[in-house]
Amino acid sequence: MSLARQDEEPEAVSLHEQTVNKLRTVLLNGELSDGSRIPEAQLCLRFGVSRTPLREALKVLAAEGFIELRPNRGSIVAPIDPVDVAHVFELKGAIENQIGLLAALRATPQDHDRIEQVHRELATHPDPTSYTELNQEFHRALATATHNPVLVQTYDNLQKRVLRLRFVVNENPVRVAQSFDEHEAIMVAFRARARLDLAERLAEHNRLTGEAVLRTLRGEDLAP
Amino acid sequence: MSLARQDEEPEAVSLHEQTVNKLRTVLLNGELSDGSRIPEAQLCLRFGVSRTPLREALKVLAAEGFIELRPNRGSIVAPIDPVDVAHVFELKGAIENQIGLLAALRATPQDHDRIEQVHRELATHPDPTSYTELNQEFHRALATATHNPVLVQTYDNLQKRVLRLRFVVNENPVRVAQSFDEHEAIMVAFRARARLDLAERLAEHNRLTGEAVLRTLRGEDLAP
DNA sequence: TCGGGTATTTTTGAATGCAAAATGATCGCC
DNA sequence: GGCGATCATTTTGCATTCAAAAATACCCGA
To answer: For the segment A1-31, what is each residue's pLDDT rounded down to a tens digit?
Structure first.
């Protein structure tokens, strides 16, 4: 058996995996409207792959909930059902709560540094695109601080399911400012390792974000 | 556009989906030991399908966490890491808690009937196989009573990840009896729609089950 | 006999090909 | 002119095929 093995990167990413990521990005960017047929042949052209890896990617994304597979009738972009969005936020609330409880106890100094850093960057990037991305990273960093990879992955999957909607909300300066205030409160609890408070503030922040998203979906004004 | 469409079943299950389910069953039954290579050709023979649908199934099961895909080096059965199992139960605890909070409020009379029924059946089927299955169904029914399909699906995915281990624990009569007692306590809270109590008892039951599973994994005796 | 390197076999990843189903268009009928 | 049925086209699902990579076997030299 060979010896030098651990350092060689397993980065020989297969074509199907690249396709999964590319297609997911396309879907997250909302390039294909909800419920529309997925143009298999067209995407093959676009990504420069044959149908086999593309179809494998479709299966995976269907398992992730981005796509609906209708046997013999093609795949469609999973429509965003406001009811479903509410359900995602409801579940996410339970996980945010758990994140608060665990992160307060388990966060390493490195975790603290990272989170503080992202938090600072958020303050200086109020434009919607950067804000959405950094906000995502902020919450992801907190999730990571639980040191529970299963939780992180599940949390990530849920986030992805509502990510397409986020940029809409984050275009509203009022909500962005409010959101940042909530982040400040979260940071206070996090720095103090106040687990119950951190849990509550994360859950509350999630609830308010969910409500803002749903209001936008319903076409209501965002001002609360 | 045609009119009679809603009643025709979408049950024309595609070959790849059947394969996903069959292969998942094989994995859940522990027929392939952890870390072992997945004999692609052999499984094609067994399921009577070609490599295309089988490989699609592998991708899906990899996304579900049952399988590890190593580019150009074949797929292996995802090894059960005790640390990971602990993480699954930790996250599941948060969700069980949420299930308790929501199910107590939202369960319909039908939900109550169903859950009572499964609970009764559990009492009369102490053999490991039935018990594992009914136990699964009991918790699934409670999850369903939240009427949050996103939660149900996420919960299901987590359950699947530890399901292979369950039958081991459920072969221990002591733990089975204890588990049933916990179910009784859960039912008392559920019937009374005592949401905080139901949440706590579900979370506690989850914690105890997790500990029993981990003890078994470590080869310790099950008696607490 | 052992080690290293090369050749062979096996296995994997992806493209192509083919049959069946669905979609859409044309035509006939009322 | 509107409606339905039949036929052509497109799209989908799966099998097969081909090339490349890995695993294995083999050979040769020390």
So the answer is: 333 333 333 446 788 899 999 999 998 888 8
